[in-house]
């Protein structure tokens, strides 16, 4: 057990896993994060915070603030978190000297073992482990940015990426696993409005990560239970229509709930002040009971809640 996991065990006191676990998922931040977020999470009585990336364009201050947050958490970095390092056009716009500095590595160093890309983090007090998919994902079935993944992780294909994710899951101490990715898994629908659907031209197509989907299928075969897969990347607001929002949550025949938490912008102004959003998931006995999107005001009160998923077992 790592020192971080030992600290978690001493700081979170739960009864056996039949007790309710409250998880907050923070979707794409895009520089909209401040000290009030930590106050909100404490007010909500969160047991675990999952942050699914895109904190800013390699935004060291935001990542530094999140890394210092004294709450049980697991993090995965998104495509914007390597914005100036992955593509040629990004490198051309880089605001720092890449020969002298490496802001991608600085973010990884700040987060330490709370960054679960290609890794696992055990939460003994919660009787579950969090498994990270491929970090810095841009989504889709084309293997992109091969040089970046080869140099950073020694990964050269979706198959090798799947193997890394599965290896992390095999090392988990618990049989109940939550998967997080920046982008969700392939297989959640081809429509533009699907959780990982393409909402730019040509409209439609599944832009989920095939390596994450393959890893989830393989991990199930070794007897692990996966109640929740949380991700972001594909924003709720659709680019091709204003008539509806993206499908934010769905489930499958295996009892896994897939939740897209990318409600952007996550902090916005109203006539009475600023409000910010979090996705909330409650689990009991390793089963998702409910998933909601909430908005909180500056007085740390919930001003609206949209239920995205409710377990059919609750109706029995």
Keywords for this entry:
316 residues, alpha/beta, Purple Acid Phosphatase, chain A, domain 2, seven-stranded mixed β-sheet, six-stranded mixed β-sheet, 13 strands, 24% helix
Question: What's this model, at a glance?
Answer:
This protein has helices spanning 3-11, 35-44, 60-68, 88-92, 103-111, 146-153, 158-170, 210-221, and strands at 21-26, 48-51, 73-75, 120-123, 128-132, 176-180, 225-231, 249-251, 257-260, 267-270, 273-284, 287-296, 302-310. With 316 residues, it is α/β, with parallel strands linked by helices. The protein has one domain: 4-Layer Sandwich (Purple Acid Phosphatase, chain A, domain 2).
Major sheet details:
7 strands, mixed
Provide the structure class: alpha/beta
Mean pLDDT: 94
Instruction: Report the span from N to C terminus.
Output: 39 Å
Just give the CATH class: Alpha Beta
Can you walk me through this structure?
This protein is α/β, with parallel strands linked by helices and 316 residues long. The protein has a single domain, classed as Purple Acid Phosphatase, chain A, domain 2 (4-Layer Sandwich). Helices cover 24% and strands 24% of the residues. The protein has helices at 3-11, 35-44, 60-68, 88-92, 103-111, 146-153, 158-170, 210-221, and strands spanning 21-26, 48-51, 73-75, 120-123, 128-132, 176-180, 225-231, 249-251, 257-260, 267-270, 273-284, 287-296, 302-310. The strands form 2 sheets. Strands 1, 2, 3, 10, 11, 12 and 13 form a 7-stranded mixed β-sheet that branches. A hairpin with a 2-residue loop joins strand 10 and strand 11 (273-284). The longest helix has 13 residues, at 158-170. It is globular, with a radius of gyration of 18 Å. Residues 8-18 have low confidence and may be disordered.
């Amino acid at each position: 057990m790592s020192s971080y996991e030992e600290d978690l065990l001493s700081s979170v006191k739960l009864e056996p896993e039949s007790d309710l676990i409250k998880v907050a998922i923070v979707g794409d931040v895009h520089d909209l994060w401040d000290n009030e977020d930590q106050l909100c999470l404490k007010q909500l009585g969160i047991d675990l915070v999952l942050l699914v990336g895109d904190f800013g364009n390699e935004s060291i201050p935001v990542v530094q603030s999140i890394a210092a947050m004294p709450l049980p958490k697991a993090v995965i970095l998104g495509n914007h978190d390597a914005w100036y390092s992955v593509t040629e056009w990004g490198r051309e716009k880089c605001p720092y000297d890449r020969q002298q500095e490496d802001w991608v590595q600085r973010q990884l160093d700040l987060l330490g073992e709370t960054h679960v890309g290609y890794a696992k983090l055990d939460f003994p007090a919660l009787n579950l482990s969090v498994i990270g998919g491929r970090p810095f994902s841009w989504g889709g079935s084309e293997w992109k940015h091969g040089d970046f993944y080869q140099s950073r992780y020694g990964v050269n294909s979706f198959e090798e990426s799947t193997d890394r994710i599965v290896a992390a899951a095999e090392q988990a101490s618990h049989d109940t696993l939550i998967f997080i990715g920046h982008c969700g898994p392939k297989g959640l629908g081809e429509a533009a409005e699907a959780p990982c659907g393409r909402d730019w031209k040509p409209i439609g197509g599944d832009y989920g990560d095939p390596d994450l989907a393959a890893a989830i299928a393989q991990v199930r075969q070794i007897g692990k239970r996966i109640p929740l897969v949380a991700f972001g990347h594909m924003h709720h607001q659709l680019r091709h229509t204003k008539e509806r929002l993206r499908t934010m949550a769905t489930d499958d025949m295996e009892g896994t709930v897939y939740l897209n938490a990318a409600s952007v912008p996550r902090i916005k102004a109203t006539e009475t002040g600023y409000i910010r959003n979090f996705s909330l998931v409650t689990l009991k006995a390793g089963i998702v009971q409910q998933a909601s999107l909430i908005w909180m005001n500056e007085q740390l009160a919930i001003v609206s809640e949209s239920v995205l998923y409710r377990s059919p077992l609750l109706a029995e």
